[in-house]
Specification:
Layout: H1 5-10, E1 14-20, H2 22-31, H3 41-47, H4 67-71, E2 85-94, E3 102-115, E4 119-130, E5 133-145, E6 169-174, H5 179-183, H6 196-201, H7 211-226, E7 234-241, E8 250-258, E9 261-268, E10 274-284
Antiparallel strand pairs: 1-3, 2-5, 2-7, 3-4, 4-5, 6-8, 7-10, 8-9, 9-10
């Protein structure tokens, strides 16, 4: 069996140093659509080094690109075909605001392996700390088609009850044709997002946008719309990737205010409001 759950869970954590500069943060922000309009003061805090604030979802690429997915596939006990892999979900917990430049230690391990019958789900946990203490914890849920059925634990359900009533805010965010090509420069070079032939082998009509790019675009929309542009208010952010997005499409982001949290649903406008992100929650101060 390509996935040995016991071996994967028992493996020693991997620890390594990561570092990032202001230009890495700026490139990430540009990759998720920041900087439009270029002279807007609200956008300059994402693009201009003298005003730079770090959107918390930068944690998913800091120092390593897409460590939760790509690194997870090279852990002991994991040997799967990349074309069968999808990013199933992502959760992020912030322990304090992320500095615009930094050096930290990242410790990664397989925290869980679930048997969903026709697929397996790996949970890759990455904990990051610097000299001052913990910074963030990332959990990536890695969905591997065709690798389930060994009789293992199915794991918890991540489905939430839909938000009640009409959303408090609805915004639309366009995705540029070259956005996946720009976003991948932050480190996730999976050919699924750039190579048409590879995308067809994976079952898609053309390259798709990185799920984590949609993830970042959505958090930016919430911060800018409901949190006054204050990135330091974000405490945690979790989502389930419910469908793909193609460059050139438009995201419709619906938001519901709650007590210390915002519920979010994201859909693709041009494909009859097809679900993109579901079970999405941003917890905040």
């Amino acid at each position: 069996m390509p996935i040995d759950a016991a071996k994967a869970m028992a493996a020693e954590p991997r620890t390594g140093e990561i570092a990032w500069k202001q230009k890495d943060v700026q490139l990430y922000h540009l990759g998720i659509g920041a900087g439009v309009p270029a002279t807007d003061p609200d956008e300059l805090r994402y693009t201009l080094e003298s005003r730079l604030h770090v959107l918390p979802s930068f944690a998913t690429v800091a120092g390593a690109g897409s460590p939760g997915v790509i690194s997870g596939l090279s852990m002991p006990g994991i040997d799967v075909d990349l074309a069968r892999v999808l990013h199933g979900g992502q959760s992020l917990t912030l322990h304090r605001p992320i500095p615009a430049e930094g050096t930290a230690t990242a410790t990664s391990r397989i925290a869980a392996v679930y048997d969903k019958g026709k697929a397996a789900v790996l949970v890759m946990r990455t904990e990051v700390a610097d000299a001052e203490g913990p910074l963030w914890t990332n959990d990536a849920q890695i969905f591997v088609r065709g690798e389930g059925g060994w009789g293992g634990d199915r794991g918890p359900s991540v489905r939430l009850e839909p938000p009640a009533g009409e959303p408090d805010k609805v915004v639309e965010r366009p995705i540029h044709e070259d956005q996946a090509l720009l976003y991948r420069l932050s480190g996730d070079y999976n050919p699924l997002h750039a190579d048409p032939e590879f995308a067809k082998l994976a079952g898609f009509e053309r390259p798709i946008l990185h799920g984590l790019c949609t993830y970042g675009m959505t958090l930016k929309a919430v911060v800018d719309t409901l949190l006054g542009g204050d990135v330091s208010r974000v405490r945690s952010y979790a989502t389930r990737f419910a469908g793909v997005v193609y460059p050139g499409e438009t995201l419709r982001v619906r938001m519901w205010r709650g007590e210390g949290a915002v519920r979010v649903a994201v859909n693709a406008v041009e494909r009859d409001d097809a679900a993109v992100l579901a079970d999405t929650v941003v917890e905040h101060s």
